[in-house]
Amino acid sequence: MSVSLQNVNFHYPDTPKNQVLSIDKWEVYPGEKLFIYGPSGCGKSTLLNLISGILLPSSGSINVLGESLEAMTDHQRNRFRANNIGYIFQNFNLIPYLNSVENIRLAHYFSSKNKPSNTTALVKKIHNLLEALNMPIESWHKPINLLSIGQQQRVAIARALINNPKLLIADEPTSSLDPYNKENFMRLLIELCTTQKITVLFVSHDQQLNQYFTRSAALPSINKIVNKQ
């Protein structure tokens, strides 16, 4: 099982009576591409932060890739996330003054696995990813803030994939994209994850994206996950 949640409840420490999430049982199988949708404020980002170990549940257990997150220290969770989980953020969270290669190398720096034996091997791996994403060579060494949104999204995908993650998490990454860029983003993402056999958790309020995934799950405002085939 890639992800398993059992009797998970979450509330923020300063508002113990305000339950953000309540999930009795929920599982994601290896290789699944799961689309999670729901209205704003229903807890979608909180769910992703729990699964990635950024947050811990108030009660219950979360098992990711065979490991119990609540049994780890903060340092162990950070290392586990760097080694096993790729994350594509809503606003990409790229460092604007670094170029494409530097942004991707920085993500690789925090991982302790699959380290190429030398810098040349790492740069080649980065170049191969950028080529697979149809990133123009002339843009590789430009600062991120000089790239188009479409180019930035490709860098964000490459950064999320550089450490060969077993699980990819995407939090509303298409919310600010026009229809053309949105379609290209989804096509590239799903194609690469299928090739590399990566489990995908993709959160959005845009139900039109459901067509790209093998399964969907609604996270309604009542904070109960309802699986839908």
UniProtKB/TrEMBL annotation:
InterPro entries: AAA+_ATPase, ABC_transporter-like_ATP-bd, ABC_transpr_LolD-like, MacB-like_ATP-bd
Domain ABC transporter: 3-225
Keyword Nucleotide-binding included in the entry's annotation: yes
One Pfam family recorded for the sequence: ABC_tran
PROSITE patterns cross-referenced by the UniProt entry: ABC_TRANSPORTER_2
Keywords, ordered alphabetically: ATP-binding, Nucleotide-binding, Transport
GO molecular function: ATP binding
Domain of life the protein comes from: Bacteria
Coiled coil residues, start to end: none
Record's protein name: ABC transporter ATP-binding protein
Organism: Colwellia asteriadis
Lineage of source species: Bacteria, Pseudomonadati, Pseudomonadota, Gammaproteobacteria, Alteromonadales
